[in-house]
Amino acid sequence: MQNVLQLNGITKYYGNILALNNVSFGVPAGSVFGILGPNGSGKTTMLGIVMNILRASSGSFEFYGQPSSAEMRKKIGTLLETPNFYHYLSADKNLRIAAEIKGKGFDQVDDVLKKVNLYERKSSKFSTYSLGMKQRLAIASCLLGNPDVLIFDEPTNGLDPVGIAEIRDLIKRLATEGKTIIMASHLLDEVEKVCTHVAILKRGNLLTAGKVSEVLVNEDIVEVGAANMDGLETALQSLNGYTSLTKTDTVIQLHYGGIAGSLENINRHCFDNGIVLNHLQLKKKSLEAMFLELTGN
Ligand code: ATP
Questions:
Q1: How many CB atoms lie within 10 A of CB 9?
Q2: Of 21, 41, 46, 185, which is best to mutate to test ligand 1, by the most ligand atoms within 8 angstroms of its C-beta?
Q3: Pocket of ligand 1 (CB under 6 A)
Q4: Which of 41, 87, 202, 267 is deepest in the core (most CB within 10 A)?
Q5: Closest ligand 1 atom to the C-alpha of 48?
Q6: Average pLDDT for 91-97
Q7: Sign of torsion, CA 100 102 108 111?
Q8: 194, 215, 236 - which closes a domain
Q9: Domain containing 92: what range?
């Protein structure tokens, strides 16, 4: 699958504050790509750079294999902060104004209102809208011009649970229409529920990137190996804590439902049972472990 967006070693300094440190990853077409990280990890900076609002200190990025251009940016709808709608005008009027500013026809206004489930309320004043409806109207505005790529910064921030659920459903619906959605979030749970892919940032450093199903694995796997594999298996039978064990010719994998116990304990247990390990490795981090590392708690 072609990458819609590719970041190559993006670094950004604000004065001597390092906000992004040599970050590289690709966003596959059709993905809902979450940029996950706590406050101050560099998410907004990254989105600002790919939208040409900010300039990277070094590194480069491409959309569809091409350096960013005004033409390319027309294919991208962005919601970086809540746009300024007129409170005393209807949703419909507000979108007509947005369409005019963006140089798009009015004919799409009804369409985008339907997409975000606001068509029935299109004549109501913006001031009568709930926060969730306001956010959906902002997304409707992004959809004018039918962009292939949507970029949202914390799209559910500040909303109540109903508003959050509506925005998440809308994002998933837009994805089924083939849009690529790049969204920043500080909520692990949100990325797990909404995104197909994720890049995890911590203080400007990319911890990992890939499919949610591979990165956010709710399991630790410890691989162990020894010259005497049968003896190793016997020794592991008296080890506590893991939920299951799988075996190949060269390694045994111990699966932990949560966070694995310390590798030292496993090593010591095997040694005490007469087995010297020649391989001991933590393969995947659990969701909790990842999150703890992320938030630094
Ligand atoms: P948040 O969710 O709080 O917006 P974020 O992950 O989007 O966080 P950024 O806003 O990109 O993070 O900030 C990354 C780092 O860069 C932080 O240390 C922040 O203080 C710093 N920073 C951001 N903007 C500026 C600026 N204009 N001048 C100086 N430092 C900045």
A1: 14
A2: 41
A3: 14, 17, 19, 37, 39-45, 186
A4: 41
A5: 11
A6: 94
A7: negative
A8: 215
A9: 3-215
The CATH number of residue 278's host domain is 3.30.70.100
If you measure from the C-alpha of residue 295 to the centroid of ligand 1, how many angstroms do you get, rounded to a whole number? 16
Q: What pLDDT digit, counting tens, does each position of 18-50 carry?
A: 999 999 999 999 999 999 998 889 999 999 999
| CATH code for the domain in which residue 7 is found | 3.40.50.300
In the reported structure, the alpha carbon of residue 24 is separated from the centroid of ligand 1 by a whole-number distance in angstroms of 18
pLDDT of 257 reads 73
Average pLDDT, the chain: 90
Q: 173 and 82, same structural domain? A: yes
What residues are paired with 34 via a beta bridge?
A: 183, 198
Write the residue with the smallest CA distance to atom 17 of ligand 1: 40
- Domain C-terminal end among 197, 215, 233: 215
pLDDT at 291 over 80: no
pLDDT in the model for residue 74: 79
- Alpha-carbon span 106 to 246, nearest angstrom: 60
